[in-house]
Design a protein that fits this description.
It is a single chain. The protein is 17% helix and 29% strand. It is an alpha/beta fold. It has three domains: 207 residues, Galactose-binding domain-like (Jelly Rolls, Sandwich); 77 residues, Sandwich (Immunoglobulin-like), CATH 2.60.40; 308 residues, TIM Barrel, CATH 3.20.20.80. The strands form nine sheets. The protein has an eight-stranded parallel sheet. Strands 3-2-4-10-7-8 form a six-stranded antiparallel sheet, with no helix packed on it. α3 links the parallel β25 and β26.
Length: 616
């Protein structure tokens, strides 16, 4: 039944970066910029693979009959490293979809000696969608579930001299199970995209001492002129080592502390602030016993302030700032969930910044950590959605009633596709994992737990739990509709009709900040730069000129006037076309900018100038 509902994979459309992909060494950069070690080995590149019907039997197949380029999912063109016909199978290892009930096996060998003096060899996966069991030299090394979150396995005791072999068994229910799946669908089309599977982020090994730093918690205390750092160690039975933390302003030492920890407070009385206009980052170096790691942080504060009229506004570093941004799905025409290269991410973010946007809403996806690093260093604020699950969703709840202006309470879990208690527990587990993973990201300003009623439940309680996990960011508790009167933002999505500004109604003496968290979605076809089967968008235009004029009119007649009244953010749909959805400002392959460049730059300059002026 599932197989009959699966739609064909989209045709190949390579980006300029995909065309020059190094199949032997894709994504060679160290993948975890805020906890970086020097002694590491990248395991990206060709892995053997085999698709097998049925669940993993606990033993790898004797024959691996294909090759796949890690870290690209098998559904993507770049998994084969070169153009291939959609739906092809065989030795390329690309153009195939892992279906529910089947298993994708991976195998890769490497040479590494067991570390000396009780050291550890750590095997790290950036992300594997959706569940996997890992073996080292035929012995179980560990298992993981959750397709968006990294995990580390200590394989020291399983190593042998000379060649070692890693084997992986992956299964994926896609949008048919209880795990988070976001906008992936086996029946792609419209605003739902090709389901991903398997390894889709970097795999690497690194050496560490027995007592090593497992994670960091970095908290900038902007008003106090200090930064707090908490070290989390592995090997808890060992004594906590003495640690030295040094903060650098470029090459110059700005401050340092030492002690037994794990909590450290570092005063920075004359610090440099982080902002989109000046995205300054401090380097943090930590020596803890025999462990050495490098990290970074930025001094900034996200909050709400009142303007001269008493209206609540989004604020950065205690000053109002308008968020002018785009909805960002994070799909690429050749790598799908995985950008073709680090260079491609830098290009896209730099272009968006040059066009005048100062924020992105990362929509229903968690990116590799290098994406957030580039937002941090380039100065792009991020609204981070949690990845949705549950389902199947009811159109009456997610589309029809909201269009009629009917707001539902989310206590009816069945109505919101959240009747399964296990699915709800998985969501809360994933929420905690997302905060722990991205807590130190300088650029993340807002968390968004729910979008348009997709698997929404107990939004008020979830918001309070999220605030407990991270009290230093704002929360858009129910983006779009089915508002439960919680969170920090009065968040609306407006399509198919004109946007009319409305201030939030006071609740317990407080008003939330009005934001337009999705709008626009104007579409324009671009021949030779599409993979669509049936075009999808909210208003269709025939050419760049017509789209550009409509975009400018939309901002001048609806957005600019609202900023003076109290609107604090406007998020246009979207960064790029994605499969059938052709409403991006860029084409899917990022080759064409579909809205006039001067129009985008001019509108953003005027929008941010008006919104951030004293007229507020």
């Amino acid at each position: 039944m599932v197989k009959n509902s699966v739609t064909a994979l989209p045709k190949t459309l390579l980006t300029r970066w995909g065309k020059k992909l190094d199949r032997e060494h894709p994504w060679p950069e160290y993948p975890r910029p805020q906890l970086e070690r020097e002694n590491w080995l990248n395991l990206n590149g060709p892995w053997e693979c085999r698709f097998v019907e049925g669940p993993p039997a606990g033993k790898a197949p004797a024959l691996f009959d294909g090759t796949i380029i890690v870290p690209f999912s098998p559904e993507s063109a770049l998994a084969g490293g070169e153009p291939h016909p959609a739906g092809s199978a065989g030795v390329s290892g690309a153009g195939r979809q892992l279906l529910p009930g089947a298993t994708l096996w991976y195998r890769r060998s490497f040479n590494a000696l067991p570390p000396e003096n009780g050291g550890r060899l750590l095997l790290n996966f950036g992300a594997v969608d959706q569940r996997c069991v890992v073996y080292c030299n035929g012995q179980p090394a560990g298992a993981h579930e959750g397709g968006y979150w990294p995990f580390t396995l200590d394989i020291t005791e399983l190593l042998r001299d000379g060649e070692n072999t890693i084997t992986l068994a992956v299964t994926d229910d896609s949008n048919c199970g209880k795990e988070a799946w976001g906008k992936q669908s086996l029946s792609r089309g419209g605003m739902w995209y090709t389901a991903q599977s398997g390894i889709w982020q970097t795999v690497w090994i690194e050496t560490a001492p027995r007592r090593y730093i497992r994670s960091l918690k970095i908290t900038p205390l902007y008003d106090e002129g200090a930064v707090e750092v908490e070290l989390d160690y592995a090997a808890a039975e060992s004594a906590v080592p003495e640690a030295r933390l040094a903060v650098y302003d470029g090459e110059a030492l700005a401050a340092s502390v030492s002690g037994m920890g794990p909590f450290f407070r570092i005063p920075l009385p004359d610090f440099k602030s982080w902002s989109p206009a000046s995205p300054f980052l401090y380097t943090l170096r930590i020596e803890a016993g025999d462990d050495r790691v490098k990290s970074y942080f930025g001094m900034r504060k996200f909050s709400i302030v009142e303007d001269e009229k008493g209206s609540p506004r989004l604020a950065l570093n205690n000053k109002p700032i308008f968020h002018s941004g785009l909805l960002d799905q994070g799909y690429w025409s050749d790598g799908l969930y995985t950008a073709p290269s680090d260079e491609a991410i830098v290009w896209e973010l730099s272009e968006l910044k040059r066009l005048g946007f100062n924020m992105l809403r990362k929509h229903i996806k968690v990116e590799p950590l290098r994406w957030y690093y580039h937002c941090d260093r380039l100065g792009i604020m991020v609204w981070q959605d949690l990845v949705s699950g549950g389902g199947p969703y009811k159109p009456m709840v997610t589309m029809i009633l909201p269009f009629l202006g009917i707001n539902l309470k989310d206590a009816n879990r069945s109505l919101f596709a959240r009747a399964d208690p296990l699915g709800r527990r998985v969501f809360e587990r994933d929420m905690k994992n997302t905060v722990e993973l991205l807590r130190n990201t300088v650029s993340i300003a807002v968390w968004g737990p729910f979008n348009e009623g997709w698997g929404q439940f107990d939004a008020l309680r979830i918001t309070e739990e999220l605030r407990r996990l991270d009290p230093h960011r704002l929360i858009d508790h129910a983006s779009g509709w089915h508002d439960q009167r919680g969170g920090d933002l009065y968040s609306r999505h407006v399509y198919f009709r004109a946007f009319r500004f409305r201030a939030d109604r006071p609740r317990k003496g407080k008003r939330r900040v009005p934001v337009l968290s999705e709008f626009g979605g104007y579409s324009c076809p671009a021949p030779h730069h599409m993979v669509m089967e049936k075009p999808y968008g909210y208003r269709m235009f025939n050419d760049k000129r017509g789209l550009s004029l409509a975009f400018e009119k939309l901002y001048r007649e609806e957005i600019l006037p609202a900023t003076v009244k109290g609107l604090s953010a406007a998020i246009y749909t979207q960064v790029s076309d994605v499969e059938d959805e052709i409403n991006g400002i860029f084409t899917y392959d990022r080759e064409l900018l579909k809205i006039d460049e001067d129009t985008l730059i001019g509108i953003n300059r005027e929008l941010l100038g008006v919104a951030n002026s004293k007229r507020l």
